Amino acid sequence: MKIAQLTPGSGGSFYCENCLRDVALVKAMQQLGHEVLMMPLYLPLNLDQVEQCRPTRVFFGGINVYLQQKFSLFRRTPLWIDRLFDQTGLLTWAGKRVGMTGARDLGEMMLSMLQGEEGRQAKELHKLIDWLEQPQNKPDLLCLSNVLLLGLAGQIKERLRIPVVCLLQDEDGFLDDLIPPYRDQAWQILAEKAQDVTTFVAVSRYYADHMERRLGLATGSIHVARAGIDVDAFEVRSDAPDAPTIGFLSQLCPPKGADLLLEAFALLKQDPPFAQARLRLAGGRSVEDKAYVRKLQQRIAALGLSADVEFLTEFNQQDRARFLQTLSVMSVPERRPVAYGLYVLEAWAAGVPVVQPDTGVFSELLAQIQGGVLYQEQTPAALADALKPLLADPERAAQLGRQGRKGVVARFDSGDTTRELLDLYEEIVQTHRVAG
Question: What percent of the chain has pLDDT over 90?
């Protein structure tokens, strides 16, 4: 089976769960013998991801998308000019220096992308489909990484006559962050264009139910396929860290709650048994997050904790594996419900227990794996109280970590989860061929 996977690139500046999920998925499918085209959109994948999944060139280059949105001239420029702006080096530079991935300023562009053929980036859509129509490139099935790409589905189905699958994972946060009136308009367009997709696939039962309500779809119409990880890339540390160490692994932005964890850490440090505790934060940041990180650093200095808090700049797969081995426990106190929690799976694969809010997918994951603790109130005090028992009892923490590792191996190994998704893809392709 030949599959095309369309995945927006983040420019490699922060821990993007959607990018990491898609890279792992494409890598696993390729290892199972399928021909998979990893097609980055907007920005390039980072070097670590490129080595894993061998992507094509970037489509819908972020600079061209922006210029076509703002200036009608660039909707008619010849292809050789477009190629100048689509150079990998230039896109990488722009992604690290220009706010191309923030939600609040992208309302008009988001609506234009969702309008597809009628949007201002129609030229980019035509270039994408022209490339896919070439015999050596045409897939049996095309997968959209998220619902924000739904504007591409109709024309792809019509011209290529192939099924289009759309993965679902945490798009609601981006959409709900759009300023009015773009937020409501975007949700309305999505509900209308949902019919252009052959099948929706969510990463968790929680999110499938949630998006059925948001998109106005029939109950049970969204498939659930677990997104796995390469369990063998992570090893369990045999001994505990020298000092109690709390870790944070995600994008350093307000919704992920690093500031809540910092305040909880400050409360812990006031308790003599945890005076030697340390906090390590990894996951990178976008351009828009820099002011937030500066405030975190200022707060750390004001609390007198500069010697006890460390920011790590590298977070590729090997760096994440090493980082997790330094932790006693990990927590990402998300401010709103999330669909996936890749960092939880990675922590468990490394034998590290987690402390997470009792919201979204975390309730589902902890019920399945039982590799950590849930807390109720989204306050620093509640988080600190949940962390204390695991920091005070390293054996208990290790036991939960072992439980997490066992559960991830049994339920979330990427080889197994990819085979489950491929079975669904095969069924979709066969049904399409019979109907066509």
Answer: 88
One domain for residues 31 and 104: yes
Shared-domain flag, residues 212 and 276: no
Average pLDDT of the residues in 213-221: 96
132, two tokens: 């896919």
Q: What's the rounded mean pLDDT across residues 250-262? A: 97
Which ranges of 32-87 would DSSP assign to H, the alpha helix? 47-53, 62-70, 79-85
What is the domain extent for residue 72? Answer: 2-228+414-435
Helix axes 258-269, 380-392, angle to 10 degrees: 60
Q: What is the CA radius of gyration of the chain?
A: 22
Per-residue pLDDT at 46 exceeds 90: no
Are 353 and 329 a contacting pair, CB within 8 Å? yes
- Model pTM? 0.94
The string of DSSP codes covering 369-384 is H--EEEESS-SHHHHH
How many CA atoms lie within 13 Å of 394's alpha carbon, on the beta-carbon side? Answer: 14
Overall domain count for the chain: 2
**Residue 387 CA: distances (Å) to CA of 147, 169, 426:** 35, 28, 44
SS3 236: coil
Are 211 and 167 a contacting pair, CB within 8 Å? no
Regarding whether 240 and 217 lie in a shared domain, the answer is no
Q: Based on the domain organization, do 101 and 203 belong to the same domain? A: yes
Q: Are residues 204 and 182 in the same domain?
A: yes
Say if CB 362 and CB 341 are below 8 A apart.
Answer: yes
Shared domain for 308 and 403, answered yes or no, is: yes
- How far apart (Å, rounded) are the C-alpha atoms in residues 79 and 86? 10
Specify whether 95 is located in the same domain as 172: yes
- For residue 426, the model assigns a pLDDT of 97
Residue type, 137: N
pLDDT score at 104: 53
First to last CA, the chain: 17
Q: What is the rounded CA–CA span in Å between residue 200 and residue 166? A: 5
CATH number at residue 253: 3.40.50.2000
Nearest Cα residue to 421 out of 145, 228, 229: 228
On whether the CB atoms of residues 29 and 422 are closer than 8 A, the answer is yes
| pLDDT at residue 101 in the model | 46
- In one letter, which amino acid is 107? G
Question: What is the Cα 267 distance to its own chain's centre?
Answer: 30
| 167 phi and psi angles, rounded to 5 deg | -80, 150
3-class secondary structure, 8: strand
